[in-house]
Amino acid sequence: MNEQQPNLLARIMKSASTIEPNELRSVITSFLFVFTLMAGYYILRPVRDAMASDWTRTEISQLWNINFFLCLAVVAIYGLFVTRVKFKYLVPGVYAFFATTFVIFYLATSGAGDTLLLDLKVDAFNYELYLTTDKAFYLWVSVFSLYHVSVFWTFMADLYTKEQSNRLFAFIAAGSSAGALVGPSIPGFFAESLGTDTLLLIAASLLVVPIILSFYLERLKVTDLHNEAVHVDLSKIQIGGNPLGGFKMFFTNPYLLGIGAFLLFYTALGSFAYMAQTDVLRPFEEAVRQKYLARVDLTVNVLTFVIGMFATSRIVTRFGMSVTLALVPIIIVAGMLIVAFAPIMIVALALQVVRRAGNYGITRPAREMLFTALDRETRFKAKPVIDVALYRGGDAVWGNVYAYLSDGLGFGLAVMMAIGAGLAAVWAMIGTYLGGMFNRQGEDKDVQKSGPIEQTS
């Protein structure tokens, strides 16, 4: 009886998802791996974002400035470790490190409470920063968000062959979607009864699971998959051999500059919507904020799954890249104007849901498609510049802009949302123009398949 059960399960899985019997244990373990990762992250995310409503817009913008430099430093440090640590130890080491840090934050918040870690005053620039435990946690979750899934997929590339990845990765990725639904449900329904301390401990405990599973998967790679010869290309994890090469490519290629401009305006609208979210949640207790933000995450993840499954490819195929890239910005124009006339919590949170679901389900996949019109060398060197430096830098710049206009000049939420609507309109125009550039780049690539993309007018 014990022997028939696995055979029956293997036959069902093979017929349903082309998983071979010898791959079954590895695939299910990989599914559980990314499930726990995403569940843990989505427990931490609403805890982090709920804290922001306790700070001024200027304080938030200061944290985004720090986050920009912190992320660049961590990316460089991680690239250094990649070249010096065996990959089979690197993966569990990363998750053990983050799990330990979140346990430390749990002990810090459950003990003496929020404590002052740094008091920086620069009189020459009239600059003052108080870095407390909760602000350090806010920054650290942002760093964690860069790595928790990226390291996982790098690990998957080290386990499976290219042929297996084509068959199996879609099923494994479903574990990410499932974790993104279960994770926010915990603070979404139990934040007030569990409390922040317990949520941190739950998330840290979940991160222990991938450590155990990583060692198990390394064994299955040999015993079940027989993929001893498969090794991930670790050079892809580093920001090129010469980081300046990517920056040079970026600033001399109009197509890359177009992608960069599109991303900058995306970060602008993300910053404006995020600040509006912190403003409308300010009157509520932290546990209540966590509950609402977790439910926003849950709704966003459900909508993203539905849009990705049934809408994105149809929109791109039927309407083309220009319409696809401009669609969400146009919706955001309307959403910002609605918030300007009705600056209340439910409307501001609805805007966040629409913006994030539209980005994850439509804009982000379309933005990734833009890179397919580039040759491999350009993608390899310039993409990290856009995805890391420009993305985090955009957050920092627009956070400062919002803080200056609101805290400095005294603009209210309605005025800021009206300005945001104008920025979204520019974003839509850039998306339309970039879609046309994509089509022209694709035509050039079909005609000449070798060599880097030349500058176009």
Q: What secondary-structure arrangement, pairings included, does this model have?
A:
Layout: H1 4-17, H2 24-51, H3 57-82, H4 87-110, E1 116-122, E2 127-132, H5 133-159, H6 162-223, H7 243-252, H8 254-281, H9 286-310, H10 312-341, H11 345-370, H12 376-408, H13 413-447
Antiparallel strand pairs: 1-2
Helix pairs in contact: 2-5, 2-6, 2-9, 3-5, 3-12, 4-5, 4-6, 6-9, 7-8, 7-12, 8-11, 8-12, 8-13, 9-11, 10-11, 10-13
Describe the model:
The protein is mainly α. The chain folds into two domains: 9-238, MFS general substrate transporter like domains (Growth Hormone, Chain: A, Up-down Bundle); 242-445, Growth Hormone, Chain: A (Up-down Bundle), CATH 1.20.1250. It has 13 helices and two strands, in the order H-H-H-H-E-E-H-H-H-H-H-H-H-H-H. The chain has helices at 4-17, 24-51, 57-82, 87-110, 133-159, 162-223, 243-252, 254-281, 286-310, 312-341, 345-370, 376-408, 413-447; strands spanning 116-122, 127-132. Strands 1-2 form a two-stranded antiparallel ribbon. Strand 1 (116-122) and strand 2 (127-132) form a beta hairpin. Helix 4 (87-110) crosses helix 6 (162-223) and helix 10 (312-341) runs antiparallel to helix 11 (345-370). The chain is globular and about 65 Å long. The chain starts with a helix and ends in a 10-residue tail after the last helix.
